[in-house]
């Protein structure tokens, strides 16, 4: 498991070694200054996607960024250690997966209250995938120009290199899981 304090110190040292201000790395990585600061202080464990953006901002691969930080091959992420995010509009998501070097995978549990629209998410890089399973309620999943209505027990797969959206138009809360393999865009060469 990667110790958040060691990760934070490592990121701080890499940033300082490149002469980057916190705000400069935050801008290059596309994350907020407050998020980056909390990660560097070891107060917040970033998701794989956020960590991948920070690696890009530092000009490193994710696996190179995390080299030598992994202390155990088995990672147990207790409920209290999971990232719980309250989103605008009243929906809530819990990132269940730990950060694993070189693995761009996330498993997220989301709860959408009745009538909640979580919005449209941008297309990820080609080769990205999402699997969605509905635990309870009804989920309206938009994939590109199509919409799919999923009930409790339903599941779906789609290539995540298109815009996609999640909404609950039902009368009860909707709980669903997303397993996502998110590829990073390749750096331009030449």
From TrEMBL:
Keywords, sorted A to Z: DNA-binding
InterPro entries named in the record: Cro/C1-type_HTH, Cupin_2, Lambda_DNA-bd_dom_sf, RmlC-like_jellyroll, RmlC_Cupin_sf, TransReg_Diox_bact_type
SUPFAM superfamilies, per the entry: lambda repressor-like DNA-binding domains, RmlC-like cupins
Pfam families referenced in this protein's UniProt entry, alphabetically: Cupin_2 (PF07883), HTH_3 (PF01381)
HTH cro/C1-type domain segment(s): 11-65
Transmembrane segments: none
Alphabetized PANTHER family for the sequence: BLR1115 PROTEIN (PTHR46797:SF10), HTH-TYPE TRANSCRIPTIONAL REGULATOR (PTHR46797)
Protein name: XRE family transcriptional regulator
Organism, scientific name: Amycolatopsis bullii
